[in-house]
Design brief:
alpha/beta, Rossmann fold, N-(1-d-carboxylethyl)-l-norvaline Dehydrogenase, domain 2, 3 domains, six-stranded parallel beta sheet, binds uridine-5'-diphosphate-glucuronic acid
């Protein structure tokens, strides 16, 4: 059992703290937000994540998990301290390290024993060395820096923590790396031990590669639209080649969320700063930008949206099973619809509150029926199960004009055609196509 402090109770810090407590470590999580800490102390998670609340409550009850706003409680007498604060997008796309630096200073000024400082936040190459330098310049206690990037997906975080593909641990002082590796023994996940800089880059390279796969398949989808091929058949045929793999080949309206857009930009910016232009990744970002416009381009082709058209936006979260709306393609669609003077109703089962922060004056609903009642066009942005499980009749019976622009390919175009829906999706030959591919 180790005594662990965690700085930051955002997505990464909270899930890390809860999961480390679950396997038996004693964990104290720190945040500057009094409100958040009070909520967490009462066993409620500020983020929506399946399974998190139960595990949080259990570990608080069993006294392995504590929350505080007091630095001494979080940092003193700890074997290890995790830095899990945000690294938001800076002015020129680079990662803003001000929170990381601040925490490093506070750790240095608070610790009363030697410790290991582990950075979980996504940080540019060289940041762990900087953290170590900051601490060394302010205290005589030793604090070896270890990079341990996070690979959790939102909406699957607890599952991923226990069944991830790998754990990456990078450090320049072998005993510290070994000690961090030992921390993860109960998870029984392959560990990659490496130097600090390589570990830092593994995180960016992994996210950038996944983003590249998405932009690649979206480009193929666009070619499909020009040529009459079907992107789902193409993705399946490609993905069965194990060297390519089936995952992250789902064409759609483009990637969003708090990670891919930010991390791809940070990597291009980091490369440029190092003197290297990452051409391919710049193209990945450009393709994603264009893809966010895709549904609106299609709607424009049909002059579907006029002033006063009643338009339903179905799904606000950047993907299902999360209430996170950061960089969601829904934002662009809503802006465009507003610009055209459409009468918008926005549906999401759980993310409406988060979107209210961006568009306070919009009409929101958590009822799919209400969103579709009388609608003259619907834009599917998130592939929520609540949307995918509907039959064509659901749309024809509620909508005034059953016209659907689907950014997530939720339905079989042939079924929609038979059901009387005017259905437009991504990379499939619109209404005339019927899926014949066996699964
Ligand atoms: C991503 C990575 O998958 C995690 O491994 C990583 O830890 C995390 O970022 C992070 O850096 O913190 P996440 O942002 O939760 O996780 O979401 P993903 O499930 O990867 O999806 C990202 C976006 O890509 C979503 O908008 C999704 O709709 C889109 N996507 C994904 C596609 O358009 N097509 C696909 O085939 C897959």
């Amino acid at each position: 059992m180790m005594n662990i402090g965690v700085a930051g109770t955002g997505y990464v810090g909270l899930v890390t703290g809860v999961c480390l407590a679950e396997v038996g470590h004693r964990v104290t999580c720190l945040d500057v937000s009094e409100e958040k800490i009070q909520l967490l102390k009462s066993g409620q998670s500020p983020i929506y994540e399946p399974g998190l609340d139960d595990m949080l409550q259990k570990n608080i009850r069993e006294e392995r998990l504590h929350f505080t706003t007091d630095r001494t409680e979080a940092y003193q007498n700890k074997d290890m301290i995790f830095i899990a604060v945000g690294t938001p997008e800076g002015e020129n796309g680079q990662a803003d390290l001000s929170f990381v630096k601040k925490v490093a200073v506070e750790i240095a000024d608070t610790i009363t024993n030697d410790t290991i400082v582990i950075t979980k936040s996504t940080v540019p190459v060289g940041t762990n060395e900087m953290v170590e330098d900051i601490i060394r310049s302010r205290t005589n206690h030793t604090a070896h820096a270890v990079s341990n990037p996070e690979f959790l997906r939102e909406g699957n975080a607890i599952h991923d923590a226990f069944h991830g593909d790998r754990i990456v641990i990078g450090g320049n002082y072998e005993p510290a790396v070994e000690k961090v590796a030992a921390l993860y023994t109960p998870f029984d996940i392959p560990v990659v031990q490496t130097d600090t800089k390589s570990a830092e880059l593994i995180k960016y390279a992994s996210n950038a590669f996944l983003a590249t796969k998405i932009s690649f398949i979206n480009e193929i989808a666009n070619i499909c639209e020009f040529t009459g091929a079907n992107v789902e058949a193409v993705a399946k045929g490609m993905g069965l080649d194990k060297r390519i793999g089936t995952q992250f080949l789902k064409a759609g309206i483009g990637f969003g969320g708090s990670c891919f857009p930010k991390d791809t930009k940070a990597l291009t910016s980091m490369s440029a700063e190092a003197g290297y232009e990452f051409r391919m990744l710049n193209a990945v970002l450009e393709v994603n930008e264009l893809q966010h416009n895709k549904l609106m381009d299609k709607a424009n082709e049909y002059s579907a949206i006029q002033k006063g058209t009643k338009a339903a936006v179905l799904g606000l979260a950047f993907k299902p099973n999360t209430d996170d709306t950061r960089e969601s393609p829904a934002i662009r669609i809503i802006e465009e619809l507003k610009h055209k003077g459409a009468e918008i109703i926005a549906y999401d089962p759980i993310a409406t509150d988060k979107m209210k922060a961006v568009f306070p004056d919009l009409t929101y609903t958590d009822s799919l029926e209400e969103a579709l009642n009388g609608a003259e066009a619907a834009f599917i942005i998130t592939d929520w199960a609540q949307i995918k499980e509907q039959a064509p009749a659901f749309f024809t019976s509620h909508m005034k004009r059953p016209l659907i622009f689907d950014g997530r390919n939720c339905f079989d175009p042939g079924d929609m055609l038979d059901g009387g829906v005017h259905y437009h999706s991504i990379g499939r030959s619109g209404n005339s196509f019927r899926m014949t591919m066996s699964t």
